[in-house]
Design a protein that fits this description.
The complex is a heterodimer of chains A (326) and B (380). By secondary structure, chain A is of the alpha+beta class. Chain A folds into 2 domains: 173 residues, Acyl-CoA dehydrogenase/oxidase, N-terminal domain (Butyryl-Coa Dehydrogenase, subunit A, domain 1), CATH 1.10.540.10; 142 residues, Butyryl-CoA Dehydrogenase, subunit A, domain 3. Chain A is built from 11 helices and 9 strands. In chain A, strand 5 and strand 6 form a beta hairpin. In chain A, helix 7 runs antiparallel to helix 10. With 380 residues, chain B is of the alpha+beta class. Chain B has 3 domains: 82 residues, no CATH class; 108 residues, Butyryl-CoA Dehydrogenase, subunit A, domain 2; 130 residues, Up-down Bundle (Butyryl-CoA Dehydrogenase, subunit A, domain 3). Helices cover 48% and strands 14% of the residues of chain B. In chain B, the strands form 2 sheets. Chain B has a 4-stranded mixed β-sheet. In chain B, strands 2-3-7-6 form a 4-stranded antiparallel β-sheet, with no helix packed on it. In chain B, a hairpin with an 8-residue loop joins strand 6 and strand 7. In chain B, helix 6 packs across helix 9. Classes of the chains: A alpha+beta (326), B alpha+beta (380). At the A-B interface, helix 7, strand 9, helix 8, helix 9 and helix 11 of A face helix 7, helix 8, helix 9 and helix 11 of B. The structure holds flavin-adenine dinucleotide (FAD). Flavin-adenine dinucleotide (FAD) binds next to strand 1, strand 3 and helix 11 of chain B.
Chain lengths: 326, 380
Amino acid sequence: MDFSFGDDQVMLRNAVRALLAHECPPEVVRAAWESDTGRTDGLWAALAEMGVVGMTAPTSVGGLGMDETDLVLLLEEAGRAALPEPLLEHTAVGIPTLAEAGGPVADAWLERAAAGEATLGAGPADGYAVGAAACDLVLLIGDQVGAVPVDGATLVEHRSIDGSRRLFEVGGDAVVLDADPALAFDRAAAAAAAQCAGVAQHLLEATVEYAAQRFQFGKPVGSYQAVKHHLADAALKIEFARPAAHHAAWCIAVGDSDRSRDVSLAKALASEAVDLAARTALQCHGAIGYTYEHDLHLWMKRGWALSAAWGDAAWHRNRIAAALGI
Amino acid sequence: MDLSFTAAEEAFREEARTWLAENVPAEPLASMDTPDGFEEHRAWEHVLFDAGWGVVSWPRRYGGREASLVEWLIFEEEYWASGAPGRVSSNGVSLLAPTIFDFGTPEQKDRFLVPMARGDEIWAQGWSEPDAGSDLAGINTKAPRDGEHFVIDGQKTWCSRGAFADWFFCLVRTDPHSERHAGLSYLLVPGDTEGLEARAIGRLDGEPGFAELFFDGARVHERYLLGGEGEGWAVAMATTGSERGLNLRAPGRFVAAADRLVGLYRELADSRGPDLDRRDQVVGAWMGAQAYRWQTYATESRLRGGAPIGSEASFMKVLWSELDVELHATALRLLGRDGERADSSWMDGYVFALSGPIYAGTNEIQRNIISERVLGLPRR
Ligand SMILES: Cc1cc2nc3c(=O)[nH]c(=O)nc-3n(C[C@H](O)[C@H](O)[C@H](O)COP(=O)(O)OP(=O)(O)OC[C@H]3O[C@@H](n4cnc5c(N)ncnc54)[C@H](O)[C@@H]3O)c2cc1C
């Protein structure tokens, strides 16, 4: 029983954190909101350069042969930076699912996906695939996993409250992959949980910083107990959501028999944590947090979106009930 | 990261489970807050200790089996899942013993640890006073030195099972002119000291589980001073880390209670049909227990890596105490009109759970600690 991450995992996390601190400041996220694709100029390429984009692919196709326990900290970083790039769809879901399926679709796409030359999208079959128009191949996950090449697919676009998330209904001829749809879904839900935890952590830190320097009645507002206790409650939710998210990643990596139940535990806790963090952050900022100019909304909206994506808290709580036989 | 248990850990779990299945009393014991129940629980401590299960993580020379922290967490999971009785020795074993290990002299260790662990000497905590609750540094019980003795005058209160306990660990003002955190000392006081009187107070359940302690010139020898004279605050703070965090309330207790709650829902749903609102509350309790479990194993890994357990213990204290209330409240809602029945163990559990957010530092105080010491918000 050892929850600690290895030196390599921590080094990779630190490298990604440093990259995102430099290359993914709020201005870049805002620019992505305004861009055609919802994505940034060059960040995906930089992550590909580091090996992150293809890290979950087998080394035989040029990946790093890493698993969910290697990826989970990076997903948290993506959340902390509100990174508008498809780390969840491509790296956490697309590549491992193609690798599991094998066959002609994998032969055609996996190597290019590992190199970052082709981008994989993913979405629930009855929902939206984020950023599909800028992808090359989209996996639709329902009773089975279908692969739809974007070239030739019909795409119906909807706007998301998070301007970097372009939502697409994807139609077209799907090739059914020989991959477990429940596993593919769990990969996505667990990755979303890790991102939620990262978004929540940023919201908390940004609000602590703000509350310490905003003065009212001659004192920092962060010295008032009502504000402190709001923030302590948000911190509590995050403190207990993160280990569950790490555990969920491990369950996927090793094929644990309680995987689906414990992925649901992680996603429900993380959704609840980010929901509370967003509410708390806004309340403790006051009106400045309610503006479009202030950066807070970039994370709040990402939090709202991720909290609901791949099963919201209520959905996952129902799935836990089913797993408990009640 | 490897979140599986080793073969040795699994074997340890199996050994504990087997022993508990064979030895846990079939009938629940009387409440440990009653004179008879207290002695029944004491006898159970003897059984546990003599079989090597009383203090699994302690050194062998004091009756332990030098189990790792992970093994101790496993033991707690098995212990509570087996339906075994509450631990009447726990204030001593969980709160005082870690302090003795850290601050005690070799003589004190040899004198106190084994009788404590075996339940031969059961300890109670004498910290709170009528005018010093959350603000513990406001304590006013004086114990100036007189030669080799300290002479205690004052009053303690809310002392759990103080009416039956054999020994008390007390925080007192050995420098009578000192204020706040200075001048305090940590004294170990024999229950039969002349000038000490313990008077029972009924708790919420009506049982005499609290005591007031009246000290009137009670003389305690200096060999019973734990840590340095005047350094009681630092010594006491070491205890609060144990009280809030891992030691007193390990996740196994709540995991087992949540599993029983799931069983209760299942049983009632079989006869009355499903109730999705209440089912969701049951799931919420189960999730809380699991979240605490994984967070504790994660914390253990950090500790093994050399990190200290600091104010993070406050996260745990808030979590387990509020979870415990919710879990039992959910059970009572499931029971409906039967919830109020006084013979229901869920009602007993609810009444006890309600004290969790108060003792061991109230949850408001814990939230102050989280916001100021973990998040770094300004104190004023
Ligand atoms: C079941 C039980 C067992 C106990 N066992 C023992 C024992 O064995 N030995 C022992 O010494 N003590 C024991 N206690 C006492 C316990 O430690 C105290 O009850 C606790 O420290 C709170 O003190 P108080 O009751 O005086 O409440 P107060 O300190 O008077 O608090 C009253 C209310 O005010 C709030 N409050 C106080 N200060 C602040 C602040 N700064 N910020 C925000 N809110 C604040 C509190 O949170 C609480 O809600 C026990 C208590 C219970 C309920």
